[in-house]
Amino acid sequence: MNTLEGFNQALFLLINGTTATPGWEISVALLIADYVIYVIPLLLAGMWLWGNEAQRHLAIRACLVAMLGVGANQLIGLVWQHPRPFIIGLGHTFLPHAPDSSFPSDHATVFAGIALTLVLGGASWLGVLTLLAGVSVAWARVFLGVHFPLDMFGAAAVAGVAYALIAPLWHLVGNAVTRWAIVVYRKLLARPIALGWLRR
Length: 200
Prior knowledge:
By secondary structure, the chain is an all-alpha fold. It has one domain. The chain is built from eight helices and no strands. The radius of gyration is 19 Å and the shape is elongated. The mean pLDDT is about 95.
């Protein structure tokens, strides 16, 4: 076992719940691990449906960064399979999960990609809130035994690379993509927009 993997496993055992962990703490972690991810589509939908053009521009960009990051994770998983803790019999598992590769975490990649895009795009407070939500999910998924801590740091690195790859392309075509998406949106949802339920 190399030094980095040893550190990863030792840090995992410090965070991971045990048979002595109170049931309420497990329940809270399960709620966070399973449901906080739904904050992301709600956030992006809210930015689009009730935001101005700048917020819509940012929402599309954030979505693309997250999608590219998750896509990269799938490729990493194909090239290098890193077993989850329960596969190697390490710690305790409180959340059922498929025995696929643990590295990097898709959940953490999505949160990191969205948060990074929002912070660098000028929506700092939304980005910080997203980051805090992502940290809570990262903790919960390690605590519940389905990820290692370094899966989360790897996810942040993947999100950073995804942002860097999207940035030059978005600089070239971002405004055109946003305008086209707004035209489509106004046609598809013309009625609720006309009723004032949604922002034009």
